[in-house]
Amino acid sequence: MRIIKLGAALLLAATLAACQKPAPKAGNVDGARIAAADTNADWPSYGKGYSEQRFSPLTQVNTQNVGQLGLAWYAQFDTDRGQEATPLEVDGVLYTTTAWSKVFAFDAATGKLLWSYDPKVNGKKGFDACCDVVNRGVAVWKGKVYVGTLDDRLVALDAKDGHVVWTAQVADPKSPFTITQAPRVVKDKVLIGESGAEYGGRGYLSAYDAATGKLAWRFYTVPNPDGKPDGAVSDKVLMQKAAPTWPEGKWKLVGGGGTVWDAIVYDPQLNLIYFGTDNGTPWNQQIRSGGKGDNLFITSIIAVNADTGQYVWHYQVNPGESWDYSAVQPMILADLTIDGKPRKVLMQAPKNGFFYVLDRTNGKLLSAKPFVPVTWAKAIDITTGRPIENPDARYKSNVDLQMPAPLGAHNWHPMSYDPQTGLVYIPAQSMPFAYQSDPNYVYKPGGWNLGVNMLANAGPTTPAQAKALAANIKGWLIAWNPVTQKPAWTVQHPYFWNAGVLSTGGGLVFQGAAEGQFYAYDARTGKQLWSYATGNGVIAPPMTYQLNGQQYVALMVGAGGGGQVSAPSLLPKRPRLPGRLLVFKLGGKATAPPFKIIQPPPLDLTGVTTTGDKAHGYVVFNDNCQVCHGANASGSWLPDLKRSIMITTAADFDSVVLQGVRAHNGMVSFSRFLTPKDVEDVRAFLISQAKGEPLPVPAAGAKTAVGPK
Ligand code: CA
Hints:
By secondary structure, this protein is α+β, with helices and mostly antiparallel strands.
């Protein structure tokens, strides 16, 4: 009996052990796991695996049943600014970030909040964020979660409970740099860049020891204006290759630009890390370097050794770039058959409107064709790899109305490569922009330094001009064949500035859109199969994971980002709404309540007076304020100043604009840039617009007040 009992007890113990499999260690991600996610259903890194294809082989949700997709759970956040993050799913935990660099960990099946982390970014830092106070997500590695904060910190959190393990200061917090990018981890090093090329400074990519936060190496993308080495891994290549491409110009004062604010991909076989760089500073190459020189390594794709950070090759998308045509846009690594030969390629659809396929072993251009209307160049010369530019594109005193615009034919919104269809799904857009040199350009430390006359875009238009302009503002989802360099199908959206993309083994492409719908399309035909009204704008990319046999599709919801901040009049008229995380499954029955919308009423301007000059105020406004509040005061997203009670008295307006009483929201004092008279003139302009008056006509040769007083 004893023996039988013992046997039964052992059997019971064995059964219990099988049921109570120890919970996996939180944040259990390493390089092998991220590399494997290129082909399996795991989603442990920003772009899924290191190749960042954003294709999941999961098939439970497919073309046959996607109509039954419903909400499984949702979470609402405490910020109403843009939501750009890709959530990661690691062993049943969903990690995501919101605007203002906050981190959240949820039970991926139930939506229960496990922990959250607020880096308490000072609201003043919002002034330095050209394109909203967004964050694109975390990296997870060996028990830690990494986030880059808007105020330039890289923070390592314990994946179990979110407590801070270490913090590294990536850039001087007093500099105008910000971080919005998701970190990536390669070989126990956390890779992070920074944003802010419009403001001045020099871009770089940094690699930090994942365990300790110690800086391992740093690669500067443009030469040091003082000609001295940085003591960085980029010293040699900057001296040999880059410095000779930078003739004299304002870059020596302003910094050159070339920030590294989005794409970082890694090929474990070639042991190469690839990253992209932003525009030069000032934008205008005439001012930056006398209209001469390639200005390496701005607007380039750079390959470095993953162990050392040493330069291996580069491909410059726009030599001597002058239009904010960044090459930081998402990159995808894939193996394609081109002309009958297997090729290891890197694909990018940068702002300039051409789709590039490079040989990622050596950086050689294999093909480049326009995926949207492009007017700045005829073609890319396949032999030299250089664009054949339209001569007018090198704007001087002429106004060059050009496509794409600085917001790009494709911005940060992730694209997806589906190996089953062989197609790349691109969130694409089109918009014209009038480039004209600013003859009055003066360096504004800490402000925008473009060297471009922004008024060239903001002037009054005739109804015919406005109609022609509107006809060229478009947003699409383009299914692009990277081998033939032709579209397979195209969906046109009602607006530009639509969301990132996911493709799946279920034959589906998922994408949200500016008007707030979340769509599923047939990956082969583009036929719309499902949609869900989120009630808010969508810019973030969806992701998918499977847990306990159930497939989920997760999406961060919340309008914002560069397009929303700089061109709100072209997007749905919607107040700012709190961000949400929506998670869907087949047969999901949860409901998210409608958003509460509170619109400020039109102002009663009875008895409101001003001593200001509205025509001058118009010029000052479009030079200093329109980036956040909309050209011609058309803004509806960041406060619509036509409806702000603060414009009704000079004292109230001064308290915000000169004294900075709203600095906690990112509206810092502009006393560095504007005189009290300028401010009253702006108020006069805003009052005139609040009354519905036509735009004033600026005085001929009107100069704006620029530079510190
Ligand atoms: Ca830029």
